[in-house]
Amino acid sequence: MAVEQLNITDIFFTPDNNTLLRSPLTLAPISEVMDTNNQTLQNLLPKNTQINGENQKFRAELLNDMKEIRELAEKEKEVDSAIPYKGNVYRVNRSQAENGAAFALRRIPTTTPPINQLGFPPNVVNLITQLGKENGLILIAGSTGAGKTTTISSMLLSYIRQYGNVAYTIEDPPEYPIQGIYQENGHHGYCLQTRPPNGDWAQGLANALRSNSRYIFLGEIRNAKSAAELLRAANSGHLVFSSIHAQSPQHALNALTNYAVSQLPEKLALNFLAQSILCVIHQTIFQAQLQAEFLFAGPAHSAVRNKIAEAKFLSLANDIQQQAIRIQNQQPLFS
Fold it and tell me: 20 to 30 Å CA-CA from 329: which of 2, 26, 138, 267?
């Protein structure tokens, strides 16, 4: 028992055979963890955890764990993959530097957190929960490591449990273990987790549509074709989830449109987006705490939807601010 006891989120293996460990609060080279004269190891352990007089034994086991995990990562030939190790799964990204291969490993939690434990305000949780009854698009934006997949997986599992029906995910690789049959609250639900066939996200989305699924999760918007197919799916009676790299809710909408317009006429893409969007959440993680901005689209022909249809994304800043005030004051977002 060593690496699985650490409160870490990531492991980095550098081309020159160095190793770094990242916790929610720090990034530390393995050399410091091995050094018994500093507190780095203790800082990587969960709060109030002590390893007592087993420091040297623990460090030796940890060093061996790092060696074995790196060997497993090096065996993977794909750019993105997932490897199991001692009860945990690590999402692996392989990069080629001038002096060799580098690996970034993200530890994937073994359970999906409930939506009310992510850090959203309670009234936002209620709003998100109600969206499970709707058709359209839920878009989660943020940088790498901001918890986008965590949020979507939590939403999806919440909807399956509360409302039942069938979910289909396209992920590379699947992260949270949510595949299976569910029977709760008098409803039956089923989730199937898949990878994009031959790396083709648009084909994966086409497969999802043929599966007659109620919920569809496209892991990430990466190209024009998948963006266009995503908008079509969100306008065809499904509840669709996806993530995108963006700096704010309005930038996320602009980025999705910019992807789609090379496959769709601009007016059509904007209309698809305005008609289908349910909410955009931009999130970051700061000192292990979730921070988020929200934009809910509201009913048909709302001011938010009209601005999106006219590509007035920057003017949505005022709507985001007004909604934030209403959320803070626990007021209805729309009259």
Answer: 138
Contacts of 154 (CB under 8 A, 6+ apart): 112, 113, 114, 115, 118
SS3 309: helix
CATH at residue 43: 3.30.450
Neighbours of 111 (CB within 10 A): 9
Rounded CA-CA distance 55/42 in Å is 10
Report pLDDT digits (tens) over 130-189. Answer: 999 999 999 999 987 788 999 999 999 999 999 999 999 999 878 888 999 999 888 899
Tokens matching residue 128:
């998100």
Q: Indicate the number of domains in the chain.
A: 2
- List the domain range (segments joined by +) for residue 300: 115-328
Given a contact cutoff of 8 angstroms between Cβ atoms, the answer to whether 176 and 148 are in contact is no
d(CA 69, CA 57): 18
